Amino acid sequence: MLLWIAVIIAVLWLLGLLGNIGGGLIHLLLVIAVVVLVFHFIRGRSSRV
Description:
By secondary structure, this protein is an all-alpha fold. Helices cover 88% and strands 0% of the residues. The chain contains two helices and no strands.
Protein backbone atom coordinates (compact mmCIF):
# COMPACT_ATOMS: atom_id res chain seq x y z
CA MET A 1 0.00 0.00 0.00
CA LEU A 2 2.76 2.43 0.92
CA LEU A 3 4.61 1.59 -2.25
CA TRP A 4 1.58 2.54 -4.38
CA ILE A 5 1.20 5.82 -2.52
CA ALA A 6 4.87 6.63 -3.12
CA VAL A 7 4.57 5.77 -6.81
CA ILE A 8 1.47 7.96 -7.22
CA ILE A 9 3.16 10.88 -5.46
CA ALA A 10 6.30 10.47 -7.57
CA VAL A 11 4.24 10.43 -10.78
CA LEU A 12 2.38 13.57 -9.70
CA TRP A 13 5.73 15.20 -8.92
CA LEU A 14 7.08 14.27 -12.36
CA LEU A 15 3.98 15.59 -14.11
CA GLY A 16 4.19 18.84 -12.15
CA LEU A 17 7.88 19.19 -12.90
CA LEU A 18 7.37 18.65 -16.63
CA GLY A 19 4.34 20.94 -16.68
CA ASN A 20 6.19 23.57 -14.62
CA ILE A 21 3.29 24.05 -12.21
CA GLY A 22 3.06 23.90 -8.45
CA GLY A 23 6.35 25.52 -7.48
CA GLY A 24 7.50 24.36 -4.06
CA LEU A 25 4.64 21.89 -3.75
CA ILE A 26 6.27 19.72 -6.44
CA HIS A 27 9.43 19.28 -4.37
CA LEU A 28 7.41 18.65 -1.23
CA LEU A 29 5.67 15.78 -3.04
CA LEU A 30 9.04 14.32 -3.98
CA VAL A 31 10.25 14.45 -0.39
CA ILE A 32 7.05 12.77 0.82
CA ALA A 33 7.45 10.03 -1.81
CA VAL A 34 11.04 9.34 -0.72
CA VAL A 35 10.05 9.22 2.96
CA VAL A 36 7.22 6.79 2.22
CA LEU A 37 9.55 4.54 0.19
CA VAL A 38 12.18 4.50 2.95
CA PHE A 39 9.50 3.73 5.54
CA HIS A 40 8.18 0.92 3.33
CA PHE A 41 11.58 -0.74 2.98
CA ILE A 42 12.42 -0.40 6.69
CA ARG A 43 9.05 -1.79 7.72
CA GLY A 44 9.27 -4.61 5.16
CA ARG A 45 12.65 -5.79 6.43
CA SER A 46 11.61 -5.81 10.08
CA SER A 47 8.51 -7.91 9.40
CA ARG A 48 10.50 -10.64 7.61
CA VAL A 49 12.80 -11.31 10.57
